[in-house]
Amino acid sequence: MTDTSMNDLMKAKMIGRSEIEDLIIVPLFAIVAALILGALTMLATNVDLATIGLSYVALLKGSVGSLSAISETLTAAAPLILAGLGLALGFRAGLFNIGAEGQVLMGGMAAVITGFTFTDLPAAILMPMSLLAGALVGALYASIAGWLRVATGAHEVISTIMLNLIAYRLLDYMLRLPFIQKEGRADPISKSVPDAAELPRLLAFIDPNLRVHAGIFLVLVAVAVVYWLLFRSKLGFEFRASGENPQAARYAGMRSGLIIVLAMASAGALAGLAGANQVLGVLGRATPGFSAGIGFDAIAVALLGRSHPIGVLFAGLLFGALEAGGRQMQVDAGVSIDLIGIIQALIIVFIAAPLLVRAVFPWGFRKGSRQTEGGQ
Amino acid sequence: MDIELRGITKRFGPVTANEDVNLSIRSGEVLGLLGENGAGKSTLMNVLCGLYSPTDGEILIDGVPATFDGPGDAIRAGIGMVHQHFMLVPVFTVTENVVLGVERTGRFDHLDLATARAQVHAINDQYGLHVDPDALVENLPVGVQQRVEIIKVLFRSADVLILDEPTAVLTPQEVDDFFQIIKALRDAGKALVFITHKLNEILEIADRISVIRNGRIVGEGLPKDLTRPQLAEMMVGRPVSFDVVKKPFAPGGTLLETRDLTVLRDTDEIAIDHLNLTVRSGEIVGIAGVQGNGQSALIEVLTGLRRATEGQVMFDGQDITRTSVRERHRLGIAHIPEDRQTVGLIKNFTVAENMVLDTYYDARFSRGPRVDWAQVNKVSAGFVRDFDIRTPSVFQAAGHLSGGNQQKLVVARELSRETKLLIAGQPTRGLDVGSIEYIHKRLIAARDEGDGVLIVSSELDEIMALSDRILVMFKGRIVAEYDANAGPVDKSAIGLAMAGAAA
Ligand SMILES: Nc1ncnc2c1ncn2[C@@H]1O[C@H](COP(=O)(O)OP(=O)(O)OP(=O)(O)O)[C@@H](O)[C@H]1O
Ligand SMILES: [Mg+2]
Fold first, then answer.
1. Cα–Cα distance between B338 and B455 in angstroms, integer?
2. Does residue B203 sit within a domain?
3. Which of B358, B353, B351 is nearest to B334 (CA)?
């Protein structure tokens, strides 16, 4: 064999038609199908056609129609992407981590406490330190589930669900502790973080109401880091190998216990960052349930993004847009925000059932390509 | 039932697996299908059993064109296939696996396993398969799992049986029994397709032979008109030598030694019972034995995948009884696992990723925390070329390689490492004659360079051809030892020892 054939062997595979169908066409059709079903739901509940039209226009306007809409979309997307990246990492390592919600809460809480405790520090130190505290505590909280799995065999789905419940209650409890609770308040609410701990708003010079903040840079860095970790690093190779085939990973001398704990910890760090991003970028303090279900929406984001960092980025942006647009929908057309939740869920159902999408939109796909042609 | 394949072509993207294949399969006949690794045999049969739809061409059943929209259709048409790689649910019992997909239910949708169990028993008795209907599949050795697959097809009363390398995992005695089954089925009027890489088997059992190369039929004939060398040449396109050439035996010091090694299975039964064995450098030690006598556990304990309950493993003067898998790799132990599909490689990983599955951390392939993928790809491409692995690129998913080429991938990875001791389970299972020739050469080259080699194989001919010393394992013990350099070893004596006669 010659050098040219060596080069042929190393030529990366062109992205084939079936990959395009999988990565782009199925999600696109899933969104369309979900929007159509959303419209049908509205029709069935006696919303007239004009209002439905109006609401979808509002959805578009509220998500990308103006600078402030885009700002809202990005603000909503940032924590979803961060936590989604963590979940994607876990999925790749074969861990079905349901605990992002709890990790978001714990991470956010840690960031708030760090923020209002070290008020004397300058922004250049306090802000990164608060973020770091969020990541660290998220990582620790998630590793509990990892450790339980390794040491006792407790499945992470169960343990992370329980850890979520614990996190909710722990948060409520902590918010009433004297050194955390805001002075002079009887309800559970934490002290506010000083400006020096906050993620600065990026477009405040144009309009102080534009909420988009420096967290989006954090998001971009996280996407790049997770990509690097998964596909370029030794540790990521071990994550992926253990996720794909634990037996082969063991055969190759990888230490499965350590890998499980590390993967959970990385996932928790990202979820913790998502929490810190919320309290330092948007809320400024912690309140009961401030996570607002980010940790659960992020599961959908990770699945929609096929557990790929770039996919998670786009999926998170889509969900952010739906959220921002959904609020506009409610304002302009008086349609309930719950409808957006329905549409989001429908998108996931369609993505999870590609055969359904192919059946509904047969003209979008090459004939016969549905066959599973893996293995022998 | 007669089947006619007309002009079948099957492409996977740029890869053409079958090109314009015509084949006829007749009832009451065994069609032997022969071809190199990656020639397209499995693909062709997957088309016939409805798993793949052909890119072009048609299938005629008794002269009537048929299209299958999945394996269910083919089964209903009476075509059943035993796949090269088992498709069993590990946590189900044998009976549950057999009825899977065709469950009979009684009133209130109650699963009627009792009847199925009786039927499995009947099939068992009829063909002498000796499979416990209530055993969990994950606890069965590979050889028995194979028989479960056969029961599955028989249970579905197929008229056409496709057997993709069924004998690859059987012992010689089992093969004889298995041939009795095939003959009985043929005499009962079933049509059979039998794929194998073993030329003597095909000459023994086939009524007609078709040879496939690069996706095309390149030769057809009757067994009585063909010889082994002729078949080999038809397959590979060049003459193949069946002889093994070794340098004179010059063993060095003891490399591997086990002292009173005792190992338990997952079920806490004794797998290895106070076993003592040594491998010297420059020596090939072959372990013969009927599957299930502790060979798998032996390999696992030597490579660090299983803990010893008692005794010691010494390597190169060092006690490695408690050493990790990774550390043993570093010390220079290479391992070709007997189950390449579930242990040896990761199907969804690329050829390149699999090529460094246990060396990615090595200085050759990594920079700090980073894997140097450019280097990995380059080196992998070199291995692909050196070991003649048939793949369009190193980015192909390993699961898309043909069975034999998957094995070559594993062998390439393990043999290209810096090693002192090579432990190989079934190193040539499922390989074509050309590749076997090549891998035997590599194993012998390792020995000639001073490596110790421990081979566990159910292929007695392979053990006899390669080994300097032959050990026979029975019920977790070494029951006989033969020095192959002292003169010819009596094959039937080994056979008797394998059956426990010496114990
Ligand atoms: N799903 C797939 N996607 C891409 N290529 C494939 C796929 N399945 C098989 N191939 C390719 O088609 C060719 C034929 O493969 P096939 O498995 O039919 O070979 P085979 O004759 O059964 O070989 P072996 O004796 O090694 O099992 C090979 O080059 C293989 O890489
Ligand atoms: Mg095959």
1. 10
2. yes
3. B358
Query: Hey, what domains does chain A have and what are their CATH numbers?
Result: 1-47+337-376 (no CATH), 75-334 (1.10.3470)
Spatial strand order of the sheet with B310-315 comes to B270-280, B254-264, B310-315, B318-319
Interface of A with B in 4-23 (CB under 8 A): 5-6, 8-13, 16
SS3 at position A150: helix
Which of these three, B205, B236, B267, is where a domain ends?
B236
Distance from CA of B325 to the nearest CA of A (A): 5
CA of A368 to the centre of ligand 1 (A): 19
Q: Same domain for B66 and B124?
A: yes
Confirm whether B246 is domain-assigned. yes
Chain segment B110-166, per-residue pLDDT in tens? 777 888 888 888 888 876 677 889 999 988 876 678 788 888 888 887 889 999 988
Is the separation of the CB atoms in A344 and A300 below 8 Å? Answer: yes
Q: Which of A237, A248, A376 sits opposite B344 (nearest CB)?
A: A248
* ipTM, 2 dp: 0.86
Number of domains in chain B: 3
Q: Among all residues of chain B, which has the CA nearest to that of A371?
A: B52
Q: Are residue B454 and residue B469 in the same domain, yes or no?
A: yes
Confidence band (pLDDT; 50, 70, 90) for B388? Answer: confident
Low-confidence ranges of chain A (pLDDT < 50): 1, 368-376
CA of A371 to the centre of ligand 1 (A): 16
Q: Give a yes or no: residue B119 inside a domain.
A: yes
User: In a mutational test of the pocket of ligand 1, which residue from B401, B406, B410, B431 has the highest number of ligand atoms less than 8 Å from its CB?
Assistant: B401
In terms of domains, do B174 and B133 share one?
Answer: yes
How far does the CA of residue B44 sit from the closest CA of chain A (Å)? 11
Shared-domain flag, residues B208 and B284: no
Instruction: Name the closest-CA residue to atom 9, ligand 1.
Output: B400
Which two three-digit tokens encode residue B415? 């043999």
Q: Supply the pTM of this predicted model.
A: 0.86
B13 in A contact zone (CB under 8 Å): yes
Same domain, residue pair B104 and B205: yes
Q: CA B397 → CA A297, A343, B9, B400, B401, distances in Å?
A: 32, 35, 22, 6, 7
Strands B160-164 and B191-195: parallel
Q: At residue B503, does pLDDT exceed 60? A: no
The interface residues of chain A toward chain B in range 228-257, judged by CB-CB distance below 8 A, are 232-235, 237, 240-241, 244-245, 247-248, 250-255
CA–centroid distance, B238 to ligand 1, in Å, is 21
Which domain range does residue B158 map to? 3-236
A207-216, B297-306, B412-421, B429-438: least confident range: B429-438
